[in-house]
Amino acid sequence: MTKRKICVVITARPSYSRIKTTLKAINAHDKLELQLVIAGSALLGRYGNAVNYIEEDGFVINEKVFMVLEGENKTSMAKTTGLGLMELANTFYNLKPDAVVTIADRFETIATSIAASYQNIPLVHIQGGEVTGNIDEKVRHANTKLADIHLVASEDAKRRVVKMGEDKNYVFNTGCPSIDIAFQVSENRKLNFDPIEKYGGVGKHINWKDGYIVVMQHPVTTEYKKSRENISKTLKVVHDLGIPTFWFWPNVDSGADGTSKGIRAFRETYQPENIHFFKNMKPEDFLRLLSNSRCLVGNSSVGIRECAFLGVPVVNIGTRQNGRLRAHNVLDVSYEEKAMKDAILNRINKPNPMSQSDIYGNGKSGNLMAEILANVDLRFHKTIMY
Fold first, then answer.
1. What class does CATH assign to 4-176+361-375?
2. Per residue in 129-158, is it b (16+ CB within 10 Å) or e — as a string?
3. Helices and strands in the chain: count of H runs, count of E runs
4. Residues linked to residue 159 through DSSP beta bridges, in sequence order
5. Sign of the torsion formed by the C-alpha atoms of 296, 298, 12 and 369
6. Which parts of 185-334 are beta strand (E)?
7. What HEC string does 127-176 produce?
8. 69, exposed or middle or buried, with CB in 10 Å at 0-12, 13-18, 19+?
9. What is the sign, positive or negative, of the torsion defined by CA atoms of 52, 54, 57, 59?
10. Do domains 4-176+361-375 and 184-348 have the same CATH topology?
C-alpha cells in the first residue's frame, strides 16, 4: 500500500508545540509518511533554535528553509514571507507531497499556503477560525480560504470557519495538539528539573523554588512602534514587584527589534535581581515550568490555550489576543502600570491550579489529526458553500 506523504511546515518555535504530537502520530500511522520542513525563525539561534529540539526528539527533517530577513519590521516581515514563498514552492516541487499542513496564523505561514495551493497540492490548515488582534487575524483567515481541509481547535472556531463558506464536511474539531502535551504534564505536575541549570539563560541566579512567575510578551505588529515602550512598562512592573521571574524572549514579528532592545537595555541598566531570561525550552519543560508558576504574564496564546487546560492564572496584557476564546484563568489588562501591578497581585493570589478548561481540546488531538489525514478525501478544488 502506498502511504500518503504529509508535508508539515514548521516556521517558528511555538509551532512545534502546536504540532508535535501530530508529528508522532503521523510517524506511527501505517497509512502515512511524514515529510518535515523546518523554516523561518525555527532555524535561528536568537529565537531559541527550535530545530535542535525537533532533532533531539528524533524527527527526520527533509528540508531546511532559511528565509528570515533582519530588521523585525513591517517591510522585512513582508520580504521574509516572499522569500519563504519562493523557497517553499521549490521544496514542495521536489518533495511531491500528497498534502501540505500549515500551522495556525503566524505571518509567514501564508507562504506555505500559497506555495501549496498554487501547485494544486491539498492544503490542510490547523487552528483556523479563531479571532485575535495583530497581523495574525488577516493571515489566519487567508489561510482558511486557501485551505481545503480544516483541523480547528474548538467548536467556536468550527462554527466560524463554516460561516466563512467552507464545506462543513471538511471542517473537523480536533482540539489543539499542544493540549496533548499539557495533558501529559497535568498527570504529573512536579517540576523535575532546574530551569537555570538545564537551559542556562542570562541574568541573576534567582531564588525560584519558593514561587515564581513567567513572562512571555511579544510585539504587536499593528502597534510595532510601541514595542520598546510596552516591554519597558512590563519590565518596570515586574522588577518593582520583586517576584522571582523567568522571562522568555519575543518572537520574530515586526517590532521584535524594539522589544529585544528594551529587554537588553533594562537588563544592562538595572541588572534585575529577580529576573532570569531564556530564549526557549522544550515544549514539555516549558509547560511544566508554567504549571508550577504562580501566574503567566504577557500576551502569548499559551496563556489562552495551555494555561486554560492546566488552570494556570494568567495576566493577558494589551490587544494581541483580542477576541480569542478564553477561560476564567485569564485576566485582561492594559499597559497602564498600576493596572498591570494590580492584575499580577490578583492572579498570584489565586489557587494554582484554578478550575481547568478543555475548550481547546482534551489531550487526544494528535492521534485524531493523523487518522483524519489518513482517511479524508484529499482534494485541491472545493465548492464554496455560501
1. alpha beta
2. bbbbbbbbbebbbbbbbbbbbbbbbbebbb
3. 14, 14
4. none
5. positive
6. 202-203, 213-216, 245-248, 275-278, 296-298, 314-317, 330-333
7. CCCCCCCCCHHHHHHHHHHHCCEEEECCHHHHHHHHHCCCCHHHEEECCC
8. middle
9. negative
10. yes
Q: What are the sequence ranges of the domains in the chain?
A: 4-176+361-375, 184-348
Contact assessment for residue 369 and residue 151, using Cβ atoms and an 8 Å cutoff: yes
> What are the contacts of 225-229 at 24+ separation with CB within 8 A?
225/255, 225/258, 226/255, 227/255, 227/256, 227/257, 227/258, 227/259, 227/262, 228/258, 228/259, 228/261, 228/262, 229/262
Residue 327 per-residue DSSP state: -
Q: Closest Cα to residue 368, out of 171, 151, 169, 122?
A: 151
Q: Which residues, at least 6 apart from 372, have a Cβ–Cβ distance to it below 8 Å?
A: 149, 151, 172, 174
Q: What is the mean pLDDT of residues 362-380?
A: 96
Q: What are phi and psi of 283, to 5 degrees?
A: -50, -45
DSSP symbol at 108: T
Residue corresponding to grid cell 529576573? 275
Q: State the burial class of residue 196 (Cβ atoms within 10 Å of its Cβ: 0-12, 13-18, 19+).
A: middle
Side chain identity, residue 107: F
Provide the whole-model pTM: 0.93
Query: What is the DSSP code string of 337-367?
Result: HHHHHHHHHHHHTS-SS-----TT--S-HHH
pLDDT digits (tens, 9 = 90+) for 195-233: 999 999 999 999 999 999 999 999 998 898 899 999 999
Query: Which of 136, 122, 128, 109 is CA-nearest to residue 174?
Result: 128
A 10 A CB-CB count for 78 gives 13
Query: What does pLDDT average to over the chain?
Result: 95
d(CA 340, CA 353): 21
Q: Is 368 helix (H, G, I), strand (E, B) or coil?
A: helix
CATH architecture type of domain 184-348: 3-Layer(aba) Sandwich (3.40)
pLDDT per position as a tens digit, 14-45: 899 999 999 999 999 999 999 999 999 999 98
